Amino acid sequence: MLANKTALVTGSTSGIGLGIAKALARQGANIVLNGFGDAEGPKAEIAALGAKVAYHGADMSKPAEIEAMMAFAASTFGQVDILVNNAGIQHVARVEDFPVERWDAVIAINLSSAFHASRLALPAMLKSNWGRIINVASVHGLVGSAEKSAYVAAKHGIVGLTKVTALENATTGVTCNAICPGWVLTPLVQKQVDAKAAAQGISNADATRQLLGEKEPSTQFTTPEELGELAVFFCSPAGNNVRGVAWNMDGGWAAQ
Ligand code: NAD
User: Is the CB of 87 under 6 A from ligand 1?
Assistant: First the structure.
Protein backbone atom coordinates (compact mmCIF):
# COMPACT_ATOMS: atom_id res chain seq x y z
CA MET A 1 0.00 0.00 0.00
CA LEU A 2 2.86 2.42 0.77
CA ALA A 3 5.29 1.49 -2.01
CA ASN A 4 7.24 4.55 -3.20
CA LYS A 5 6.34 6.46 -0.05
CA THR A 6 8.93 7.47 2.54
CA ALA A 7 8.22 7.48 6.28
CA LEU A 8 10.42 9.24 8.81
CA VAL A 9 9.79 8.08 12.38
CA THR A 10 11.51 10.03 15.16
CA GLY A 11 12.68 8.06 18.19
CA SER A 12 12.46 4.77 16.31
CA THR A 13 15.49 2.88 17.64
CA SER A 14 13.23 1.46 20.36
CA GLY A 15 9.69 0.86 21.58
CA ILE A 16 6.64 2.39 19.90
CA GLY A 17 8.61 4.21 17.19
CA LEU A 18 10.28 1.00 16.05
CA GLY A 19 6.90 -0.80 16.11
CA ILE A 20 5.37 1.89 13.89
CA ALA A 21 8.40 1.91 11.55
CA LYS A 22 8.09 -1.86 11.12
CA ALA A 23 4.35 -1.69 10.39
CA LEU A 24 4.95 1.00 7.72
CA ALA A 25 7.88 -1.01 6.28
CA ARG A 26 5.58 -4.05 5.95
CA GLN A 27 3.39 -1.85 3.71
CA GLY A 28 6.38 -1.12 1.47
CA ALA A 29 7.41 2.36 2.67
CA ASN A 30 11.06 3.44 2.71
CA ILE A 31 11.99 4.13 6.32
CA VAL A 32 14.17 6.80 7.92
CA LEU A 33 14.97 5.83 11.49
CA ASN A 34 16.07 8.24 14.22
CA GLY A 35 16.94 7.92 17.89
CA PHE A 36 19.74 7.15 20.31
CA GLY A 37 21.51 3.88 21.11
CA ASP A 38 22.08 0.99 18.73
CA ALA A 39 20.83 1.79 15.22
CA GLU A 40 22.25 -1.28 13.45
CA GLY A 41 19.80 -3.75 15.07
CA PRO A 42 16.68 -1.69 14.19
CA LYS A 43 18.04 -1.05 10.67
CA ALA A 44 18.48 -4.80 10.15
CA GLU A 45 14.92 -5.46 11.43
CA ILE A 46 13.51 -3.01 8.84
CA ALA A 47 15.71 -4.32 6.02
CA ALA A 48 14.55 -7.89 6.83
CA LEU A 49 11.00 -6.73 5.96
CA GLY A 50 12.21 -5.85 2.45
CA ALA A 51 12.11 -2.07 2.92
CA LYS A 52 14.83 0.45 2.13
CA VAL A 53 16.12 1.98 5.36
CA ALA A 54 18.34 4.89 6.40
CA TYR A 55 19.20 6.34 9.81
CA HIS A 56 19.90 9.83 11.12
CA GLY A 57 20.93 10.41 14.73
CA ALA A 58 19.54 13.95 15.19
CA ASP A 59 18.95 15.02 18.77
CA MET A 60 15.28 16.04 18.72
CA SER A 61 15.86 18.74 21.33
CA LYS A 62 17.99 20.65 18.79
CA PRO A 63 16.20 22.45 15.89
CA ALA A 64 19.38 22.64 13.77
CA GLU A 65 19.81 18.85 14.00
CA ILE A 66 16.13 18.34 13.06
CA GLU A 67 16.74 20.50 9.98
CA ALA A 68 19.78 18.37 9.08
CA MET A 69 17.72 15.17 9.51
CA MET A 70 14.90 16.42 7.26
CA ALA A 71 17.44 17.47 4.58
CA PHE A 72 19.11 14.04 4.87
CA ALA A 73 15.76 12.24 4.41
CA ALA A 74 14.90 14.35 1.36
CA SER A 75 18.31 13.81 -0.25
CA THR A 76 18.21 10.04 0.48
CA PHE A 77 14.66 9.22 -0.65
CA GLY A 78 13.32 12.33 -2.45
CA GLN A 79 10.90 13.57 0.19
CA VAL A 80 9.17 12.65 3.43
CA ASP A 81 5.56 11.58 2.74
CA ILE A 82 4.78 10.23 6.21
CA LEU A 83 6.13 11.94 9.30
CA VAL A 84 5.68 10.19 12.65
CA ASN A 85 6.58 12.50 15.52
CA ASN A 86 7.25 9.93 18.22
CA ALA A 87 10.46 10.73 20.14
CA GLY A 88 9.70 11.30 23.79
CA ILE A 89 11.06 11.19 27.32
CA GLN A 90 9.50 11.20 30.78
CA HIS A 91 10.44 12.74 34.13
CA VAL A 92 8.43 12.22 37.29
CA ALA A 93 8.40 14.82 40.12
CA ARG A 94 6.01 17.23 41.81
CA VAL A 95 5.84 20.71 40.25
CA GLU A 96 7.74 22.38 43.10
CA ASP A 97 10.52 19.79 42.84
CA PHE A 98 10.64 19.54 39.02
CA PRO A 99 14.18 20.27 37.74
CA VAL A 100 13.97 23.23 35.33
CA GLU A 101 16.39 21.53 32.95
CA ARG A 102 14.12 18.41 32.80
CA TRP A 103 11.06 20.60 32.11
CA ASP A 104 12.87 22.25 29.19
CA ALA A 105 14.06 18.88 27.83
CA VAL A 106 10.60 17.26 27.99
CA ILE A 107 8.95 20.23 26.25
CA ALA A 108 11.69 20.36 23.58
CA ILE A 109 11.69 16.64 22.77
CA ASN A 110 8.00 15.75 23.30
CA LEU A 111 6.45 18.92 21.81
CA SER A 112 8.71 21.43 20.03
CA SER A 113 10.42 18.73 17.93
CA ALA A 114 7.04 17.87 16.36
CA PHE A 115 6.54 21.52 15.39
CA HIS A 116 10.01 21.69 13.81
CA ALA A 117 9.75 18.40 11.89
CA SER A 118 6.19 19.27 10.72
CA ARG A 119 7.07 22.77 9.49
CA LEU A 120 9.95 21.28 7.51
CA ALA A 121 7.95 18.34 6.08
CA LEU A 122 4.79 20.23 5.06
CA PRO A 123 5.98 22.14 1.94
CA ALA A 124 6.89 18.94 0.02
CA MET A 125 3.73 17.15 1.22
CA LEU A 126 1.58 20.05 0.02
CA LYS A 127 3.39 20.17 -3.31
CA SER A 128 2.58 16.50 -3.99
CA ASN A 129 -0.87 16.91 -2.36
CA TRP A 130 -0.42 13.80 -0.22
CA GLY A 131 1.01 13.52 3.24
CA ARG A 132 0.45 12.04 6.67
CA ILE A 133 1.63 13.58 9.92
CA ILE A 134 1.08 11.26 12.86
CA ASN A 135 1.87 12.64 16.29
CA VAL A 136 2.42 10.08 19.03
CA ALA A 137 0.79 11.87 21.95
CA SER A 138 -0.49 9.81 24.91
CA VAL A 139 -3.57 9.30 27.02
CA HIS A 140 -1.77 12.07 28.93
CA GLY A 141 -2.72 14.32 26.02
CA LEU A 142 -6.33 13.86 27.19
CA VAL A 143 -6.11 13.51 30.99
CA GLY A 144 -3.55 14.32 33.69
CA SER A 145 -1.62 12.30 36.26
CA ALA A 146 0.20 13.63 39.33
CA GLU A 147 3.95 14.22 39.08
CA LYS A 148 3.98 14.35 35.26
CA SER A 149 3.55 18.11 34.71
CA ALA A 150 5.98 18.54 31.81
CA TYR A 151 4.87 15.33 30.07
CA VAL A 152 1.15 16.08 30.42
CA ALA A 153 1.68 19.69 29.30
CA ALA A 154 3.69 18.54 26.26
CA LYS A 155 1.16 15.84 25.34
CA HIS A 156 -1.84 18.19 25.67
CA GLY A 157 0.21 20.62 23.55
CA ILE A 158 0.84 18.09 20.80
CA VAL A 159 -2.89 17.25 20.65
CA GLY A 160 -3.48 20.98 20.08
CA LEU A 161 -0.75 21.13 17.44
CA THR A 162 -2.38 18.11 15.74
CA LYS A 163 -5.74 19.90 15.48
CA VAL A 164 -4.24 23.11 14.08
CA THR A 165 -2.05 21.24 11.55
CA ALA A 166 -5.09 19.24 10.44
CA LEU A 167 -7.23 22.39 10.05
CA GLU A 168 -4.62 24.36 8.13
CA ASN A 169 -4.41 21.55 5.55
CA ALA A 170 -8.02 20.35 5.64
CA THR A 171 -8.71 21.02 1.95
CA THR A 172 -5.58 19.16 0.83
CA GLY A 173 -4.36 15.56 0.72
CA VAL A 174 -2.31 16.15 3.84
CA THR A 175 -3.80 14.88 7.11
CA CYS A 176 -2.57 15.15 10.68
CA ASN A 177 -3.75 12.95 13.55
CA ALA A 178 -2.57 11.90 17.00
CA ILE A 179 -2.26 8.49 18.61
CA CYS A 180 -2.85 8.39 22.36
CA PRO A 181 -1.53 5.16 23.93
CA GLY A 182 -2.14 4.11 27.52
CA TRP A 183 0.56 1.91 29.07
CA VAL A 184 2.90 0.24 26.56
CA LEU A 185 5.70 -1.92 27.96
CA THR A 186 8.74 -0.14 26.48
CA PRO A 187 12.00 0.99 28.15
CA LEU A 188 10.25 4.30 29.02
CA VAL A 189 7.63 2.46 31.11
CA GLN A 190 9.97 -0.28 32.38
CA LYS A 191 11.88 2.49 34.21
CA GLN A 192 8.62 3.50 35.97
CA VAL A 193 7.86 -0.13 36.89
CA ASP A 194 11.40 -0.54 38.30
CA ALA A 195 11.08 2.69 40.31
CA LYS A 196 7.73 1.58 41.77
CA ALA A 197 9.13 -1.87 42.71
CA ALA A 198 12.19 -0.29 44.37
CA ALA A 199 10.18 2.40 46.23
CA GLN A 200 7.69 -0.10 47.69
CA GLY A 201 10.00 -3.10 48.06
CA ILE A 202 7.71 -5.23 45.86
CA SER A 203 8.40 -7.56 42.95
CA ASN A 204 8.49 -6.40 39.35
CA ALA A 205 5.35 -8.44 38.59
CA ASP A 206 3.45 -6.85 41.51
CA ALA A 207 4.61 -3.37 40.47
CA THR A 208 3.40 -4.04 36.91
CA ARG A 209 -0.01 -5.25 38.17
CA GLN A 210 -0.31 -2.15 40.38
CA LEU A 211 0.69 0.22 37.55
CA LEU A 212 -1.92 -1.23 35.18
CA GLY A 213 -4.58 -1.59 37.88
CA GLU A 214 -4.36 2.08 38.90
CA LYS A 215 -5.30 3.44 35.46
CA GLU A 216 -6.07 0.89 32.80
CA PRO A 217 -9.42 -1.00 33.11
CA SER A 218 -8.29 -3.69 30.64
CA THR A 219 -5.25 -4.37 32.91
CA GLN A 220 -3.37 -5.07 29.66
CA PHE A 221 -0.55 -3.26 27.93
CA THR A 222 -1.15 -1.89 24.43
CA THR A 223 1.60 -3.17 22.10
CA PRO A 224 3.84 -1.32 19.60
CA GLU A 225 2.43 -3.69 16.93
CA GLU A 226 -1.16 -2.55 17.64
CA LEU A 227 -0.08 1.10 17.51
CA GLY A 228 1.74 0.39 14.24
CA GLU A 229 -1.49 -0.89 12.69
CA LEU A 230 -3.31 2.30 13.75
CA ALA A 231 -0.59 4.33 11.98
CA VAL A 232 -1.11 2.15 8.88
CA PHE A 233 -4.84 2.93 9.01
CA PHE A 234 -4.15 6.69 9.09
CA CYS A 235 -1.96 6.20 5.97
CA SER A 236 -4.59 4.13 4.12
CA PRO A 237 -7.17 5.51 1.66
CA ALA A 238 -9.80 4.98 4.39
CA GLY A 239 -7.92 7.62 6.40
CA ASN A 240 -8.19 10.29 3.69
CA ASN A 241 -10.74 12.35 5.62
CA VAL A 242 -9.68 11.53 9.17
CA ARG A 243 -8.37 14.90 10.32
CA GLY A 244 -7.31 16.22 13.69
CA VAL A 245 -8.36 13.26 15.82
CA ALA A 246 -6.64 12.18 19.03
CA TRP A 247 -7.30 8.44 18.97
CA ASN A 248 -6.70 6.65 22.22
CA MET A 249 -5.59 3.00 22.44
CA ASP A 250 -5.60 2.88 26.20
CA GLY A 251 -7.58 -0.10 27.52
CA GLY A 252 -10.39 2.24 28.60
CA TRP A 253 -8.17 4.61 30.65
CA ALA A 254 -9.74 7.84 29.32
CA ALA A 255 -13.28 6.44 29.27
CA GLN A 256 -13.49 6.55 33.08
P1 NAD B 1 11.30 4.46 24.37
O2 NAD B 1 12.13 5.02 25.48
O3 NAD B 1 11.27 2.99 24.13
O4 NAD B 1 11.70 5.14 22.98
C5 NAD B 1 11.95 6.50 22.88
C6 NAD B 1 12.70 6.76 21.60
O7 NAD B 1 12.99 8.15 21.51
C8 NAD B 1 14.06 6.02 21.55
O9 NAD B 1 14.33 5.64 20.22
C10 NAD B 1 15.03 7.12 22.00
O11 NAD B 1 16.36 6.91 21.53
C12 NAD B 1 14.39 8.31 21.34
N13 NAD B 1 14.80 9.58 21.91
C14 NAD B 1 14.78 9.98 23.21
N15 NAD B 1 15.29 11.22 23.30
C16 NAD B 1 15.63 11.61 22.04
C17 NAD B 1 16.19 12.78 21.49
N18 NAD B 1 16.54 13.84 22.24
N19 NAD B 1 16.41 12.81 20.16
C20 NAD B 1 16.11 11.75 19.37
N21 NAD B 1 15.55 10.62 19.84
C22 NAD B 1 15.32 10.56 21.16
O23 NAD B 1 9.85 5.06 24.63
P24 NAD B 1 8.41 4.69 24.04
O25 NAD B 1 7.61 4.22 25.19
O26 NAD B 1 8.50 3.88 22.82
O27 NAD B 1 7.88 6.15 23.69
C28 NAD B 1 7.69 6.63 22.39
C29 NAD B 1 6.63 7.71 22.41
O30 NAD B 1 5.41 7.15 22.87
C31 NAD B 1 6.94 8.87 23.35
O32 NAD B 1 6.54 10.09 22.74
C33 NAD B 1 6.09 8.57 24.55
O34 NAD B 1 5.75 9.72 25.26
C35 NAD B 1 4.88 7.94 23.89
N36 NAD B 1 4.06 7.13 24.77
C37 NAD B 1 4.56 6.04 25.41
C38 NAD B 1 3.74 5.29 26.24
C39 NAD B 1 4.20 4.07 26.96
O40 NAD B 1 3.44 3.55 27.80
N41 NAD B 1 5.35 3.54 26.69
C42 NAD B 1 2.41 5.69 26.44
C43 NAD B 1 1.94 6.81 25.78
C44 NAD B 1 2.78 7.53 24.94
Answer: yes
**Alpha carbons 119 and 161: distance in angstroms, whole number:** 11
Ligand 1 proximity of 42 Cβ (cutoff 6 Å): no
Instruction: Note the pLDDT tens digit of each residue in 228-247.
Output: 999 999 999 999 999 999 99
Which residue's alpha carbon is at the smallest distance from atom 8 of ligand 1? 11
Catalytic, 151? Answer yes
Ligand 1 binding pocket mutation candidate from 8, 89, 189, 216 (most atoms within 8 A of CB): 89
CA–CA distances in Å: residue 77 to residues 6, 30, 40, 125, 215: 7, 8, 19, 14, 42
- How many CB atoms lie under 10 A from the CB of residue 128? 12
Closest Cα to residue 4, out of 84, 79, 70? Answer: 79
**Per-residue pLDDT tens over the stretch 99-153:** 999 999 999 999 999 999 999 999 999 999 999 999 999 999 999 999 999 999 9
Q: Is the distance from the beta carbon of residue 11 to the nearest atom of ligand 1 less than 6 Å?
A: yes
**CA pair distance 31, 205, nearest whole angstrom:** 35
Cα dihedral: 188, 66, 56, 38 (round 10):
-20
Distance linking the first and last C-alpha atoms of the chain: 36
